[in-house]
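Consider this today:
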Amino acid sequence: MLKNGERIDDLNLNGLKLIQREDMFKFGMDAVLLSNFVYTKRGDKIVDLGCGTGIIPILIAGKSRDTRIVGVEIQSEVANIAIRNVYLNNFEGRIDIINDDIRNVVDKLGIEKYDIVTSNPPYMRHKTGFDKNSESENISRYELNGGLDDFIKVASRLLKFGGKFFLVHRVDRIVDIVYNLRICNLEPKKIRFIHPHIGEKPNLVLVEAKKGAKSGVVIMPPLYVYEENGGYTKELLSIYGKTSIEEE
């Protein structure tokens, strides 16, 4: 199952594992926080836009029951790893991976067919120079194949009325996020800022939006990642150990 340059990482959750490659973008804490921010009902149909090697679909499948998830990934080599990760974790009956541009998938998946859409999209606006030598990493980090507005538009078209969109992004894009959600009939309902340490500014934000909802948003308590001694906070540790995201 492994190819040259690949490794298998233990996700420390219900025996789940993930194949990753050294020269490609590897999942971070933001993906874990987003998958925990999502809450599901049995039978929910879910799409993850820009799924990479499949970390968010696999975590959601591992923490829920009877959900069906489609992951969309534009890079063929990355999508191939995601497909193998589905088989590695025995989720072939619950997760499908589509190798395509997210801007093309509405025609394939259908309008207003899904209960939940998630996304941990590229954070950085397109520019002429890049921080990484790896083309794959640049595609994962920069808006080369659709911007934030495209991800939100696609999410809105895929979602049923009353469906939910869960997003993690850089906090300095919060105005862009709220603006684009509103014009796509996705009303922000919950916002949670993620701070590296107590007393520091947030660097990431989690957003839940609901299609067709009335206005009114809850700003959740801040989420702190690190204690003063450099270890994870109790809440962060509890998130990594949480085994279910189903609604109670």
